[in-house]
Amino acid sequence: RSGEMAKSTQLIDNEVFRAYATYAAIVLLKMMLMSLVTAYYRVTRKAFVNPEDAASLGKGDSAKKYLRTDPDVERVRRGHLNDLENIVPFFGIGLLYALSGPELSTALLHYRIFAGARILHTFAYLIPLPQPSRGLSWAVGYAVTFSMAYKVLKTVLLL
User: Fold this and answer.
1) Which GO cellular component terms, listed alphabetically, does the Swiss-Prot or TrEMBL entry include (predicted)?
2) Which range of residues forms the domain containing residue 75?
3) Most buried in the list 9, 42, 135, 155, measured by CB within 10 Å?
4) What residues have CB less than 8 Å from 136, skipping those under 6 apart?
5) What is the per-residue pLDDT for 1?
6) Domain holding 80: CATH number?
7) Number of folded domains in the chain?
């Protein structure tokens, strides 16, 4: 068992893996914050989808008026869903990429651009910023993930 623990600590000593862990934590925390932003918008807009949540604002028919959709809540939810569609693949592909032996400077470039693109995408969604800001920030993050996936496949399959 001590041999297994030594391998884990060796991974933590790997600068590329530490960079991955840093930026993965940043974008995962950002994604988690979107849940809080969604809850904030639901409460401040009094727009709930579950009867038990609406019941906290009234009883019977008076609570039913809070069972509704709200454009601001839906905008935040769409941003959060977009995070799920993009950060989850980054999490897996970024790990494989870190383990494929890239140069630290190249890995940092990938990770920083992805994190920056996702943060910009969130601001573009929530403010909202005019298009094509949201679309470009999505495309940049997607391209980074694709680039890392290509590098992994090239390394593993000798493409």
Assistant:
1) endoplasmic reticulum membrane; mitochondrial outer membrane
2) 15-43+70-154
3) 42
4) none
5) 47
6) 1.20.120.550
7) 1
Quote the CA–CA distance of 109 and 31 in Å, as a whole number.
21
Q: Which tokens is 156 given?
A: 């593993």
CA 97 – CA 153 distance, rounded (Å): 9
Q: Which of 61, 30, 75, 67 is nearest to 47 (CA)?
A: 67
Residue 7: both structure tokens together: 């391998």
Model-level pTM? Answer: 0.88
The residue among 93, 94, 122, 87 whose CA lies nearest residue 108 is 94
Distance, in Å, from the CA atom of 156 to the CA atom of 65, rounded to the nearest integer, reads 56
In the block, residue with structure tokens 């600068």: 15
pLDDT tens track for 55-72: 888 777 778 888 899 999
Residue 27, number of CB atoms within 10 A of its CB? 25
In whole angstroms, give the CA distance from residue 115 to residue 29: 11
Q: What is the pLDDT of residues 70-129, one digit of tens each?
A: 999 999 999 999 999 999 999 999 999 999 999 999 999 999 999 999 999 999 999 999
Model confidence band, residue 6 (pLDDT cutoffs 50, 70, 90) = very low
